[in-house]
Amino acid sequence: MPIEVSNLTHTYMKGTTSEVTAISGVSFRIEDGEFVGLIGATGSGKSTLIQHLNGLLRPTSGTVLVDGVDIWSKGVSLKQIRRKIGLVFQYPEQQVFEETVYDDIAFGPRNLGFSQAEVEARVEKACELVGLDKELLPRSPFELSGGQVRRVAIAGILAIQPKVLILDEPTAGLDPKGRMEILDNIKQLHETGMTVILVSHNMDDVARLCERVMVLEKGTLVFDGPAREVFTQREFLYSKQLRPPEVTLLMEKLRQRGWAVRQDVLTVEEAYAEIMKELRKKGVAGAI
Ligand SMILES: Nc1ncnc2c1ncn2[C@@H]1O[C@H](COP(=O)(O)OP(=O)(O)O)[C@@H](O)[C@H]1O
Ligand SMILES: [Mg+2]
């Protein structure tokens, strides 16, 4: 289910003295199976934009087409749209509200009217997908660690079995281990064919996972293209209050010291390969 956004503008509190235009004139199309990273400084409009993709926010002007149909046209069920396009909010811990982890994950499928057996099967599958220990299911979500709560929130969306998964800063505030585990789960979901849209502050994560990157600045889409293209434009990124991934910056430092390494390195694996190549040339690789 391709998503097509045309000339989208969103103004909060329109007509009041405190009105804010959070998104202005944004257009793009996302095809099935893409993994898109959405980046931009705080307040650039990322959360506002993604909430339009499943009809949580209504455009002030412009359109959102899902499978070629304007989701705000008459006769379209937004409930159906949200079933196909799942959104995991920023700070999902604020949304965990049921008594047990099980009930929390089961909330979506129950709401869709599935049988108890189907709900159970979906909860179980969702737990597997996010690596959540089933022993936690009877527990209160409030007893869980930050990483576990994120998994519960993601599992709750996956239990709806959406075609598109949108995640707003899913790893913010987690330790590196928790972050890597959740991102690996998301990567696996993408590999099974799911379309993923990832909002993140972590450029290394976006560089490693996303093929395509969109950059927002003050509500305007200022870049939409391959990750390798945007992350090698250092000055452009800095001008948007962003920075290249650490691994890309490391390559730059090595080059400044005379190493003939590639500048468009986006992952630790690529950096490792480049460094080893150079060490071999220098004839020291055997020594390490
Ligand atoms: N519910 C809201 N009411 C009014 N203004 C809002 C609301 N949510 C966000 N904004 C404003 O819209 C702009 C974009 O915010 P947001 O979409 O949250 O950006 P980001 O997710 O990139 O940090 C900001 O100026 C923010 O203050
Ligand atoms: Mg946000």
Any idea what the shape is?
globular
Helix content, binned percent? 25-40%
Summed over residues and divided by their number, the pLDDT gives a mean of 93
Beta-strand portion reads 15-25%
Model description:
- This protein has 2 domains: 3-241, P-loop containing nucleotide triphosphate hydrolases (Rossmann fold); 245-288, no CATH class.
- 39% of the residues lie in helices and 21% in strands.
- The chain is built from 11 helices and 10 strands.
- Strand 7, helix 6 and strand 8 form a beta-alpha-beta unit.
- The model has no long low-confidence stretch (mean pLDDT 93).
- Residues 12-13, 20, 22, 40, 42-48 line the site of adenosine-5'-diphosphate.
